[in-house]
Amino acid sequence: MALELETVKELADRTDWPQSRIRKLIENRELRYVKIGGGIFIPKGAIEEFISNNTVEPISEEKLPLAATV
Fold first, then answer.
1. What letters, b where the CB count within 10 A reaches 16 and e where it falls short, cover 7-40?
2. In whole angstroms, how large is the CA radius of gyration of the chain?
3. How far is CA 26 from CA 41, 48, 59, 65, in A?
4. pLDDT tens, residue by residue, 26-69
5. What SS3 class is residue 1?
6. Of all helices (H) and strands (E), which one includes residue 12?
7. Is-contact 40 5, C-beta < 8 A?
8. Residue 53 phi, psi dihedral angles, 5° rounding
9. Run of H or E residues at 6
10. Would you give the DSSP letter of residue 61?
11. CA-CA distance, 8 to 39, in Å (whole number)?
12. DSSP string covering 14-45, please?
């Protein structure tokens, strides 16, 4: 099994996110990564995992407290 890795630049290009945002996620250990030599590499699927783990679902009207449903 070959593990696919991408650089910060490759991930930034793929997601249209700034490299600085990706580096901040890495710095805060919010995004999985691996250091090889002096380089930082992100496993393919790590950003999708981050998004999935941090997605906040909207509150449906059924779940709102009675006072909020006016």
1. ebeebbeeeeeeeeebeebbeeeebebeeeeeeb
2. 17
3. 10, 14, 30, 38
4. 999 999 999 999 999 999 999 999 999 999 988 887 766 666 55
5. coil
6. helix 8-15
7. no
8. -70, -20
9. strand 5-7
10. G
11. 9
12. HHT--HHHHHHHHHTT-S--EEETTEEEEETT
Amino acid occupying residue 38? G
| Tokens matching residue 63 | 């779940």
Token pair in block for residue 22: 């990706």
pLDDT tens digits, 9-28? 999 999 999 999 999 999 99
In angstroms, what CA-CA distances link 15 with 19, 47, 48, 64, 68? 10, 9, 10, 34, 37
On whether the CB atoms of residues 8 and 21 are closer than 8 A, the answer is no
Closest CA to 23 of 13, 12, 36: 12
